[in-house]
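Re: weekly structure request thread

Next one in the queue (221 aa):
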Amino acid sequence: MPTVLSTKKLALNQKELLLNSGIGFTEYDAIAIEFVDVDLPEQKVENAIFTSKNSLKAIKSKNLDITRCFCVGSKTAAMAEQMGFKVVETTANARELAEIIIRTYPDKNFRFFCGNSRRDELPEMLQLQNIVLEEVEVYRTNLNIQEFRSDYDGILFYSPSGVKSFTSKNNLNSIAFCIGGTTASEAKKHTTRIVTPGTPGIENLIAAVAKTFRKELKHQQ
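Done, posted below.
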C-alpha cells in the first residue's frame, strides 16, 4: 500500500478519499496560523485584496464595510461572499490578479490584507504601475517543524510555508504533491518529482495522488 504524509490535517471526507483509493496516510499541521489583532483606522474599504482564507478569518470580527473584493482562489472568493462581501475579481494566482488590476483598475486604491509570509509578486507589480496599495498584516504563519523517521511515497503540500516547514528537518526524497503553482515553485528548490492538480483544491490534490499511484502500481505489475 502506498503511504503519504499530509502536511495539513484533513477533513473526514478527505481522509476517506485517500483510504478508498488504497492509500495509507499520516497527517500533521506543518504550519500554525496566528491572527494579529490590528487597529484599523477606517472601517470603510473601497477595494480589498485577499489572497487566502486566513486573511478573511482574521478580519471577521472587525465589521469592515468593503465595497469590492479582489480574491485569489475560488475558496477565498466563496468565503468572502459568505461574509457578505461583493467579489468582483477572482483569479487562480496573484500574478493574474495583479494583471487584471493593472489593466482594468489602474486608478483605484487598494488595501491588501495579508500574512507575514506573503509573496512579493502582487505588491511589486502594482507598485511598478504606481497603483496605490496599503498592506495590512492580519496574520502570521508560524512553522511547526518536525522530523520524520519514516519513508513516505509522497508528501502533500498546501502552501510554500508548508514546504519550508517540512524541509527544515527532512529531505524531500518522495514525490511532492503540491496544491498549486506557488507551492510547487517552493518544492522545486528541493526536488524535481512534483505533481500538481489541474485545478487547485484539496480534493483535486488527493485525486492527483490516487491517479499517480494507480499508474505506478500498473507500471510495477
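The chain has a mean pLDDT of 93. The chain has two domains: 3-32+146-220, 42-140.
Next request, please.
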